[in-house]
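Try this one yourself first.
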């Protein structure tokens, strides 16, 4: 089937499913269409199955719980999939970039490339197809003035033409359908940034040792770097060790503190983590960027680097424990969950930084390893209905949950809050009860007004109950 016919069919489905609609079942159906299109071109471009699965999984998660966060994960998976469908060998972060650029300006880039290389232009249209398209366009142009002339000549014909209702065709709808056509055209016939892909393939995960022995000036320079780096890492280790000692004393005393004090302690720990990890990575990348990795006298600076990484891991554990205490006392919020996620990613970053030094890896290794880990962590996190999970934990495990915060979350937790307000009527104010009832009504009304394209798991569960 011609790529333009496929693109037109895709554009029509794109318009039917998404125009003036919120997200739900339509993203699942659209994802299946994209999957089938990628299958249809598998002879030219191998299907990246792991990323297809991630993309379909993200679509299902949006259907289950259509929050802004999960919609973001869905589009992230889509752009990565587009990049991987063009070249499966590209790094993950580069695949995402290729996917974004391809969906936006692939046609412009391909046109520019053909203009620069006119001899390489492929003949995509047969003469018969070209003549047919020209004929259709000319006929459409000619029909308009003749129709106007015939309308003036015959009142019956004029009434017949006037009775045709084309109000369903709107300018925004036409532009939206055109956008769908461009998107599907770029999926079927993408732009291949060959030079960028080639450059990425040339970047090794390992640093290459020098082919010749170090000269005397080079050895002097490496000794200087070794001394300078050792002093810096020793100073940072002493500072961090002192900080950890005071942190341990604070945790050991288990002093009763106010909510604001506890919050400040947790966030100060996170800020310290952010600063120390950024410093660690930048300093390590600077000193271990080249020949120092292969200098035989680098044992001291390596040992101090390993100590630095180990102390930062201890700082991660201490901060995790403080945040855990905070959650036990006051319940979950998105900020507190964010702290846990950041600590996990920080721990992984520290491990990859250690591997970079121990195994003489390159900066590209850090980018590739950490981007893969972050990608799959985000996908896994999309499987959790966060608003419902936060609400469930707080009303089940916290004696006096912050109802104002829970009411301020998305509407998906409205039924949980409604049941809680009925069961604990004496514990909530009349204003809070009113807000909960309004939130529940708004949620139910919005769900009942959804069209079939916007259906979510809520409609499926409701139909079963009925």
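Now uncover the answer:
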């Amino acid at each position: 089937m011609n790529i333009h016919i496929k693109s037109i069919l895709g554009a029509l489905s794109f318009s039917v499913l998404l125009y003036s609609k919120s997200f739900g079942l339509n993203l699942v159906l659209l994802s299946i269409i994209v999957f089938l299109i990628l299958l249809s071109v598998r002879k030219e471009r191998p299907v990246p199955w792991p990323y297809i699965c991630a993309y379909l999984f993200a679509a299902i998660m949006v259907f289950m719980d259509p929050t802004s966060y999960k919609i973001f994960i869905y589009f992230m998976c889509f752009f990565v999939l587009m990049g991987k469908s063009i070249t499966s060998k590209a790094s993950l972060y580069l695949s995402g970039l290729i996917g974004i650029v391809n969906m936006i300006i692939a046609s412009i880039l391909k046109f520019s490339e053909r203009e620069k290389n006119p001899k390489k232009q492929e003949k995509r249209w047969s003469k018969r197809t070209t003549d047919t398209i020209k004929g259709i366009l000319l006929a459409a142009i000619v029909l308009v003035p003749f129709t106007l002339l015939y309308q003036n000549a015959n009142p019956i014909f004029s009434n017949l033409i006037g009775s045709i209702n084309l109000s369903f065709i709107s300018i925004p709808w036409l532009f939206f359908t055109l956008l769908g056509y461009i998107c599907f055209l770029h999926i079927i016939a993408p732009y291949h940034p060959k030079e960028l892909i080639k450059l990425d393939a040339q970047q090794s995960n390992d640093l290459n040792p020098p082919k010749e022995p170090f000269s005397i000036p080079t050895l002097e320079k490496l000794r200087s770097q070794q001394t300078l780096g050792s002093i810096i890492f020793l100073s940072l280790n002493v500072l961090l060790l002192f900080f950890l000692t005071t942190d341990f004393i604070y945790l050991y005393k288990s002093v009763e503190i106010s909510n604001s004090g506890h919050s400040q302690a947790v966030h100060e720990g996170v800020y310290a983590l952010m600063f120390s990890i950024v410093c660690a990575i930048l300093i390590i990348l600077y000193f271990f960027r080249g020949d120092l990795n292969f200098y035989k006298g680098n044992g001291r600076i390596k040992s101090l680097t390993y100590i630095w990484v180990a102390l930062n891991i201890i700082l991660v554990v201490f901060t995790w424990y403080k945040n855990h205490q905070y959650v036990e006392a006051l319940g979950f919020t998105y900020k507190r969950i964010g702290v846990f996620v950041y600590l996990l990613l920080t721990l992984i970053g520290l491990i990859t930084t250690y591997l970079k030094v121990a195994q003489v890896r390159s900066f590209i290794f850090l980018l590739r390893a950490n981007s893969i880990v972050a990608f799959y962590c985000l996908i896994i996190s999309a499987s959790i209905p966060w608003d419902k999970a936060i609400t469930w934990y707080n009303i089940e495990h916290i004696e006096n949950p912050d109802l104002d915060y829970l009411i301020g979350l998305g509407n998906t937790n409205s039924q949980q809050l409604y049941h809680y307000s009925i069961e604990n009527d004496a514990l909530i104010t009349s204003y809070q009860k009113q807000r909960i009832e309004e939130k529940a009504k708004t949620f139910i009304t919005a769900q009942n007004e959804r069209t079939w394209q916007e259906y979510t798991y809520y409609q499926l569960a409701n139909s079963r109950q009925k």
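Discussion: The chain has three domains: 1-125+166-205, 216-361, 386-465. The mean pLDDT is 84.
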